[in-house]
Amino acid sequence: MDWDGSGVRGLLTNERYTGDVLSRKTCTLDFRSHKSVVNDGHKPQYYIENHHEGIISKEDFQRVQDILSQSVSTAKGIRKKTYPLSKRLKCTNCGANFHRQENPNGKVDWICSTSKKSKKLCKMESINEEQIEKLLKEGFYKRYGDNITTDGNRFKKQLMKELMNAEAARDREQNLLRVKLEKILIEENKAVIDGLETGPIKEKRIALEKQIAERATDWELFDRDEAFRRKALGKLKDLQGSVQSINRILDISFMRAWVIRIKIESPYLFTVKWIDGSKTVAGQFRRRYML
Ligand SMILES: [Zn+2]
After folding, report:
1. Rounded to the nearest whole angstrom, what is the distance from the C-alpha of residue 24 to the centroid of ligand 1?
2. CA separation for the pair 111, 104 (Å, rounded)
3. Ligand 1 centroid – CA 269 distance (Å)
4. What is the pLDDT of residues 220-263, one digit of tens each?
5. Which domain holds residue 156?
């Protein structure tokens, strides 16, 4: 687990992942509409320890809870200067973040922090920021396909709509996954109580929990990017809707509003993960990397 990123927060603030379940935290009132409401006394509430096999230990859970409650008050004062790509470039070779490095000629490189320590630990090459921008732009073009080159005005509207709806879309997805998990847990609980086979339900639940954990890490990053979305929206508002004018504003800090993370395979091959969870591969596999 990546203890460095506070992405673990979304995962660890949910007691479910440790195997404990606060039963009937929400209870389904209307079975026809499947509307779930927070249990405020409609039904009894009880805490079941070790209800299912948790994916992290309770000790780890508590430790991170403690860290989290501290960091809220202290993080503000000690925040280091961050750049649009800070902590968003991941080395696929070793899993570390890329660090920014300013060269004497004024150009900026990004280098895998492990590889910076020693090439023996990770052989990932450093990447010029211009190259990152080029590949990110390629990814952006791939994401929007023909829309980007055919009708500038329509494309502008599409981008603005996406940014304006981003938070609502994130909340919708989160709620949907929560309700799904809730249903499976109720089903699993019932199977346990009725003495039925729980294997398949458990498998389903574990798969869903993995999906939620992954998205929770993404959402944590997404929530910190409000400023990028606001700025990009501002730029779009002032823009003429021509293809050329949009093309001109496609720099890293603008496109960053759509980016959750970039996984770097090599200086020539990236996978961009976007705010909606979709992924785009940019660049190409170079023959020399096969050797
Ligand atoms: Zn690396």
Report:
1. 44
2. 16
3. 14
4. 999 999 999 999 999 999 888 788 888 889 999 999 999 999 99
5. 130-291
